[in-house]
């Protein structure tokens, strides 16, 4: 089978999923991403999920275009671009059977992905058992095992503790202090100082300011007007003010995971080709 005929469906198009989608498209695979109607990617400047809102977005030279139908999605993929559809329940699988399916939602639980969805199935992170739910699981926890391809068993459980950047972990992540509509006072890539209000959450005329605990670059923030819940992760700040380009490019973690997904697919393909 020619690579351009090996359709890969990726559930999710956030920043980690985008690393995988980007890698697969560059390698010549047609990729269809399936997203919710209201994606909540924090690092949205490096996430193909933004195409759900804007119709088209680009990350590191690869475009992702929103499709309103399966036929339109195939036309997009023929051009060498990634396609995205709003289909969180994977109803498109009632009409097509992909060569492979990758669950990159990173929900920390299985939202329905199973081995019957495609000839080859891979899931990222905890919530899946390799050999049962899917063929392979990719470790997403930072550390020595990041990107490890698991053939039997599960990825490490989510700790809920953000990764350390320049000595800061939980301090760099901003959670919504209230429920309501988000109004941004700073944009991704802006330099902010500790104690600065970077956004406001408004509900019923009450405006609740949102502050950053540390100084640095706004690395990610939800879209203007997004309906947030209290406690929802809504932004993060990178203390390395010299790393502005990082706000708009695929992360080291996403690249590592993407390489493992590609290796996993090639491994499954080679395994299928073995005699007997």
Structural class: alpha/beta
Number of helices: 4
Order of strands in the sheet with most strands: 3-4-5-2-1-6-7-8-9
Percent of residues in beta strands?
Answer: 25-35%
Radius of gyration: 19 Å
What's the N-to-C terminus distance? 19 Å
**Rounded average pLDDT:** 95
Proportion of helical residues: 10-25%
What does the overall shape look like? globular
Number of strands: 17
Low-confidence stretches: none
- Main sheet summary: 9 strands, mixed
Sketch the topology as an H/E string, one letter per element: EHEHEEHEEEEEEEEEEEEEH
Organism: Candidatus Limivivens intestinipullorum
Protein name: EF2563 family selenium-dependent molybdenum hydroxylase system protein
């Amino acid at each position: 089978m020619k690579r351009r005929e090996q359709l890969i469906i990726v559930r999710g198009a956030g920043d980690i999923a985008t690393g995988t989608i980007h890698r697969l498209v560059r390698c010549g695979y047609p990729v269809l991403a399936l997203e919710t109607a209201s994606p909540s990617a924090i690092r949205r400047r490096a996430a193909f999920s933004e195409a759900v809102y804007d119709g088209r977005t680009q990350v590191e030279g690869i475009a992702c275009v929103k499709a309103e139908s399966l036929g339109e999605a195939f036309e997009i993929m023929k051009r060498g671009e990634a396609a995205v559809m709003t289909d969180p329940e994977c109803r498109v699988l009632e009409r097509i059977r992909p060569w492979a399916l990758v669950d990159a939602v990173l929900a920390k639980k299985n939202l329905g992905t199973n081995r019957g969805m495609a000839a080859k199935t891979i899931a990222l992170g905890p919530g899946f058992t390799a050999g049962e739910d899917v063929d392979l699981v990719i470790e997403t926890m930072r550390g020595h095992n990041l990107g490890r391809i698991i053939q039997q068993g599960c990825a490490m459980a989510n700790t809920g503790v953000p990764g350390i950047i320049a000595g800061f972990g939980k301090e760099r992540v901003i959670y919504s202090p209230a429920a309501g509509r988000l109004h941004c006072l700073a944009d991704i890539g802006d330099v902010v100082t500790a104690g600065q209000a970077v956004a406001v959450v408004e509900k019923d005329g009450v405006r609740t300011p949102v502050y950053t605990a540390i100084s640095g670059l706004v690395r990610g923030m939800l879209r203007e007007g997004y309906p947030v819940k209290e406690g929802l992760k809504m932004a993060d700040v990178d203390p390395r003010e010299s790393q502005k380009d990082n706000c708009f490019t695929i992360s080291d973690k996403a690249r590592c995971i993407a390489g493992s997904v590609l290796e996993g697919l090639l491994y499954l393909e080679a395994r299928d080709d073995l005699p007997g």
